[in-house]
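Quick sanity check, 3'(2'),5'-bisphosphate nucleotidase CysQ:
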Amino acid sequence: MPESDLALLTRAAREAGAVALGYHGPTAKRWDKPGGAGPVTEADLAVNAALRAILLGARPDYGWLSEEDSDTPERLDRPKIFLLDPIDGTTGFIEGSSSWSLSLAVVTDGEITAAVVHLPADGGKLYAAAAGEGATLDGRPIRATTRENVEGAQVLATRAAMEPANWPGGVPGFRRHHRPSLAYRLALVAEGRFDAMITHRDSWDWDIAAGLLICREAGAVVTDRAGDPPRFNTADPRTPGIVAGGRAVHAGLIAAMRPRG
């Protein structure tokens, strides 16, 4: 029987994760991307090359969109594409943190249909999901929390996200936490370790695609900051912010982002 997309992503993540561990820490050569787009290391490129060889070697008809490759319009004509960030949380990777991840997804006609978030340096954790099949962590089913209100909720967000200008309806009284990888933040919400995550900034699709499906399959609601569901494999691969959480907490966060009256 042919390897499923999810099985392929899982295999690719584990093999490429081993490549990343060979560079892990401050010894990896690094430089800054142009235009203030953040740091990149030789590990990002090596992992990207490994993923490209494995994934396109198995599915040469799929399109390709990776943070570490130049985007091309050909992907827009493909019904299926691979959408990935070889190392999400590069700054943490450079600092020797364990909370960076490989974020891999398959997009089918604009929707995420298979996804993996793998943390090689954190015990080899692997979050996975396929559309309609639920979400797992290391093969065990996971579920998002069902908290009923925002007040006192445990929410992953940056310090900048707490600026009053981001909350026309008033800054909610949740407890803020942070992890550097967007993909991992979404996975932690799916696992139920946090009630929600938010980012007000535009988010690149490769950072959020895999975590989005894992969250949804774990029972969470995931939208942009306006409350609309993201679409993928579009000409501009960005989403205007992300809000993920159980239904009630998600609704409370979205309401607080909207002007009163």
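Posting the structure with no commentary besides this: The CA atoms of residues 29 and 155 lie 34 Å apart.
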